[in-house]
């Protein structure tokens, strides 16, 4: 999957993955992580997610990473704030108040970039990547995020032969393989949400489990 794929999706406004509201898991489950106010939360492949605004409004510094400049610009425009823009290494940095978005490749993130992160929120990154890129992405985060980092990971699990991704199916066995032993993780919820997802129903999918994990970096 090349960067042009995502640039094209945003240019054509084919962004069905973008939620028009805050993810309902976030206000209900994020407080259970017990993160301190003011701590920085990494949101990889953030798009223009309203979840970043929720995290900021609830006392966190937010560090988003997004490949497509269109998505970054739309986020700040829709929030009606004017970001400060500068170049920092491999990234074009957009910053306004508690929200900073690094526009560029998530694989260019360094330990220094995420040294202050105490939280990770992955709703759209892992499921956006094909298998070989998922493995590289997980290894990258395993390497650069500091020990003690806690967060939420949201995945989808369905029969990939019934429909192509993205979003891709990432079954529990794969999540365990990708993240252990660097993280301890536990499943908080795993509802079947097929009746809420018309795209999957139309595509012929017969089962769609949305799985929410609590994560803590231990190594």
Task: Briefly say what this structure is.
This protein has two domains: 97 residues, Rossmann fold; 95 residues, Vaccinia Virus protein VP39 (Rossmann fold, 3-Layer(aba) Sandwich), CATH 3.40.50. It contains seven helices and nine strands, in the order ααβαβαββββαβαβαβ.
Description:
With 219 residues, the protein is α/β, with parallel strands linked by helices. It has 2 domains: 1-9 and 37-124, Vaccinia Virus protein VP39 (Rossmann fold, 3-Layer(aba) Sandwich), CATH 3.40.50.150; 125-219, Vaccinia Virus protein VP39 (Rossmann fold), CATH 3.40.50.150. Helices cover 26% and strands 26% of the residues. It has 7 helices and 9 strands. It has helices at 3-11, 25-29, 51-57, 69-78, 131-144, 172-179, 198-202, and strands at residues 40-44, 61-66, 84-88, 91-96, 99-103, 117-122, 150-157, 183-189, 209-217. It has a 9-stranded mixed beta sheet, sandwiched between helices. The radius of gyration is 17 Å and the shape is globular. The mean pLDDT is 92.
Describe the secondary structure blueprint for this structure.
Layout: H1 3-11, H2 25-29, E1 40-44, H3 51-57, E2 61-66, H4 69-78, E3 84-88, E4 91-96, E5 99-103, E6 117-122, H5 131-144, E7 150-157, H6 172-179, E8 183-189, H7 198-202, E9 209-217
């Amino acid at each position: 999957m090349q960067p042009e794929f995502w640039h094209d999706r945003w240019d054509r406004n084919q962004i069905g993955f973008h939620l028009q509201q805050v993810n309902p898991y976030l206000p209900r489950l994020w407080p259970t992580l017990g993160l301190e106010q003011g701590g920085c939360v990494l949101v990889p492949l953030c798009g223009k997610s309203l979840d970043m605004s929720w995290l900021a409004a609830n006392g966190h510094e937010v560090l988003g990473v997004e490949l497509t400049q269109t998505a970054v610009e739309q986020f700040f425009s829709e929030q009606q704030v004017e970001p400060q823009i500068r170049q920092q290494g491999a990234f074009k940095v957009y910053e306004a108040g508690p929200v900073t978005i690094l526009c560029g490749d998530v694989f260019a993130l360094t330990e220094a970039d995420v040294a202050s992160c105490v939280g990770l929120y992955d709703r759209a990154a892992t499921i956006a990547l094909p298998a070989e890129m998922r493995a590289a992405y997980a290894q990258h985060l395993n390497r650069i995020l500091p020990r003690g980092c806690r967060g939420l990971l949201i995945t989808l699990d369905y029969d990939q032969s019934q429909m192509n991704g993205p979003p891709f199916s990432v079954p529990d066995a794969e999540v365990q393989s990708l993240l252990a032993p660097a993280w301890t993780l536990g499943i908080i919820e795993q509802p079947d949400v097929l009746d809420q997802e018309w795209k999957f129903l139309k595509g012929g999918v017969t089962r769609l489990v949305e799985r929410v994990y609590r994560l803590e970096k231990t190594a």
